[in-house]
Automatic annotation (TrEMBL):
InterPro entries: Anthracycline_SecMetBiosynth (IPR052164), Glyas_Bleomycin-R_OHBP_Dase (IPR029068), Glyoxalase_6 (IPR041581), VOC_core (IPR037523). This is VOC family protein. Residues 1-20 are annotated as: Disordered. Residues 22-136, 150-265 form the VOC domain. SUPFAM superfamilies: Glyoxalase/Bleomycin resistance protein/Dihydroxybiphenyl dioxygenase. Signal peptide: none annotated. It holds the Pfam family Glyoxalase_6. Coiled coil: none annotated. It comes from the Bacteria.
Amino acid sequence: MTEARRPAGPNDTTHARHSPGTPCWASLMVHGMAVTQEFYGALFGWEFRPGPRPLGPYVRAVLNGHEVAGIGRLPPDRHLPVAWTPYFASDDVDATAETIRSCGGTVAVGPLDAAGAGRLAIASDPMGAVFGIWQAAGHLGRGLTGVPGTPAWNELLTYDTEGVAKFYRTVFASGQEPVLSGGPDRVTVYIEGRPVAGIHGFGSALPPDRGPHWMTYFQVTDVDAAAVQVAALGGHVVRPWFDTALGRVVTVADPEGATFSVVSRAD
């Protein structure tokens, strides 16, 4: 969307090192990188530059000169789900990975070094939702928020919040606070007094074909226009617009089926 290319403004936020436990990056692993780059480049105004290759071909999406997300290619011989994965900052990935294991989670990849950019691991919580951990070195994570085309929020969609919220609180030493206005079984996760992510329990209403998973939200100027553009670019609408405390939201999928949400911020 052309509005994603606008210059930085007074509400934009550039980032240095991210506090431990805060979402610091979002990465998408796909089969066809060229088609995926074309889709997100047209939708969000992203350009791309090469990134480290510890897991194969990888590029970083750049907006207004700042890196905001990553796209990599799945191994051709492995049938893995195509999905956006949030990464949470850590000062010590190895220690965080051990805490994840001791709290009933699983570490599927790593910890491993990413060519001087940092150190990472990919894990899942006790209910199976996948997330990443990032210990920054040369690459601090996303460098910009608050403009169209940047990640705006992360929310865990799961069966219930009670047990899994305790897991994330222990792993990342975070606080949590119920959000009564958001409906039952919903909490907001706080780091250093700032809301950084949400957890929403759906019970048996959670789609069985997805299971528990993290949803990444990207900011746009107009969600309805973004939904139309997603369809024109080969994606589709998963859930029509609905209003949240964040603003107006539409959940969509890209041409390979990776779901994400677009949100126009409520002022």
